[in-house]
Amino acid sequence: MALSLPAIMRTTAARLSALYLLLFALCAVLLVFYMTSLSARMLTAQTQETINDEVLGLANAYQRGGLPVLVRVVEARSRQPGANLYLIADANGQILTGNVQSLEPGVIETEGWTTEPFSYQRFGEGELDRLRSGDQTAPSTGTGGAQSEGEKGHNAIALVLRLPNQMIMLVGRDLGEPERFRAVIRRSLMLALGMMGLGGLLIWFFVGRAALKRIDSVSEASRRIMGGDLGGRLPVTGAGDEFDRLSENLNTMLARIAMLNEGLKQVSDNIAHDLKTPLTRLRNRAEAALAGKHKTTDYRQALEGTISESDQLIKTFNAILMISRLEAGYSSETAGPVDLAATVSDVVELYEPVAEEAGVVLEATVPEAVTINGNRELIGQALSNIVDNAIKYSTGATESPKVRVTLERAASGVKLSVSDNGHGIPDDADRARATERFVRLEKSRSQPGSGLGLSLAKAIMSFHNGRLDLLPANPGLSVVMSFPARETH
């Protein structure tokens, strides 16, 4: 999707990139100007020190032989390659000797260091420029006369001295090297800024555009999801970057929301179908009690049956609410250290009379102590539901029905299994459906129950970061509750 420049600059990535670029450019400019100024000052100080040494040497020559020796020394030094600026003029400013042809007006009128760099021409440069331009006019040999318009000059600093005979001596140094250094720094700065700008454009073209396209794809997928397509997911490229991590987390959240919505839909459907029968029985019992004349005992039996049906409905609704709270990750129940061995012993002791009455042998294999982090009441309720189902559905399946509760440690945690030798659930799809709400695989519906026992057990195991598995026991069924070892809930 093509974006205009204002639209691009509204993005956080573009704003941050522009701010970083501006900050870097500002710091680079300040650093370069600071280094240039510092280097120029250092070169100027070095130049002044060199000039002082030259002046000291010339002063010694003047003391040895006067003006003739000084002139010879100045002429000799003027002819050396890369020589400093040397000039000797009379009291009127007329140049007598040296390698300077013309000076900026007013330079030799003040004794001491020149306050500002001045322009000058070396001896012979003006004539060479005129020959190149075809002008045969004789050059001016005036003392400190101004340079003619269009002549090319140099900048320098110098020390001006008055000799005892009122003659003027100038010793200076050309500033071409500091100026060239400054020009190199400026060109380097412009080149660096240009490369930085080009690099920024290339990074935006190859990286920024890709990031913006991914953001656009995420936004488009989000709009489809908000439009009602809960099955849609955010795109994941597999690059493993922050966009992929964000998309994966949001996809996990969407899958969780979809599962909760599906559970809500199933609850609504199940309530409409499975709770219709007990409500119908309540109405029929009340209608039968009101029809005709009955004894007091008949009315009492009708009311007791109504209360019993109502209690069963309340239990069903409580189980539904508990499952919903646990699946949503919210519960008022607290977690703490739980001795699973003691919990298993209590549940087995509670159901021994029930198993004995049903003709089922209930056994338990429990170690001395196995402690996990969880809620004792919830774990006890889940185990009770599983044991109750095992006793009910093993009755009549064999001559010697048996239910065994086994608690053991595993490499990944603790496993609590309840196995029976009944008919079991041979089909894998039926075993997967058995933990859904209101699902009862028994066709005859001869056993009491609402189909919420295993659903509640599964929700309790999810609450404890565990897992509930239904496995074939050959014969029978084995329900395995897998707990993480001492995991903080």
TrEMBL record:
<feature type="transmembrane region" description="Helical">
    <location>
        <begin position="12"/>
        <end position="34"/>
    </location>
</feature>
<feature type="transmembrane region" description="Helical">
    <location>
        <begin position="189"/>
        <end position="207"/>
    </location>
</feature>
<keyword id="KW-0418">Kinase</keyword>
<dbReference type="InterPro" id="IPR036890">
    <property type="entry name" value="HATPase_C_sf"/>
</dbReference>
<dbReference type="Pfam" id="PF02518">
    <property type="entry name" value="HATPase_c"/>
</dbReference>
<dbReference type="Pfam" id="PF00512">
    <property type="entry name" value="HisKA"/>
</dbReference>
<dbReference type="Pfam" id="PF00672">
    <property type="entry name" value="HAMP"/>
</dbReference>
<dbReference type="InterPro" id="IPR050428">
    <property type="entry name" value="TCS_sensor_his_kinase"/>
</dbReference>
<keyword id="KW-1133">Transmembrane helix</keyword>
<keyword id="KW-0472">Membrane</keyword>
<dbReference type="InterPro" id="IPR003660">
    <property type="entry name" value="HAMP_dom"/>
</dbReference>
<feature type="domain" description="Histidine kinase">
    <location>
        <begin position="270"/>
        <end position="487"/>
    </location>
</feature>
<feature type="region of interest" description="Disordered">
    <location>
        <begin position="130"/>
        <end position="151"/>
    </location>
</feature>
<dbReference type="GO" id="GO:0005886">
    <property type="term" value="C:plasma membrane"/>
</dbReference>
<keyword id="KW-0597">Phosphoprotein</keyword>
<keyword id="KW-0808">Transferase</keyword>
<protein>
    <recommendedName>
        <fullName>histidine kinase</fullName>
        <ecNumber>2.7.13.3</ecNumber>
    </recommendedName>
</protein>
<dbReference type="InterPro" id="IPR003594">
    <property type="entry name" value="HATPase_dom"/>
</dbReference>
<feature type="domain" description="HAMP">
    <location>
        <begin position="209"/>
        <end position="262"/>
    </location>
</feature>
<keyword id="KW-0902">Two-component regulatory system</keyword>
<dbReference type="InterPro" id="IPR004358">
    <property type="entry name" value="Sig_transdc_His_kin-like_C"/>
</dbReference>
<dbReference type="GO" id="GO:0000155">
    <property type="term" value="F:phosphorelay sensor kinase activity"/>
</dbReference>
<dbReference type="InterPro" id="IPR005467">
    <property type="entry name" value="His_kinase_dom"/>
</dbReference>
<keyword id="KW-0812">Transmembrane</keyword>
<dbReference type="InterPro" id="IPR003661">
    <property type="entry name" value="HisK_dim/P_dom"/>
</dbReference>
<dbReference type="InterPro" id="IPR036097">
    <property type="entry name" value="HisK_dim/P_sf"/>
</dbReference>
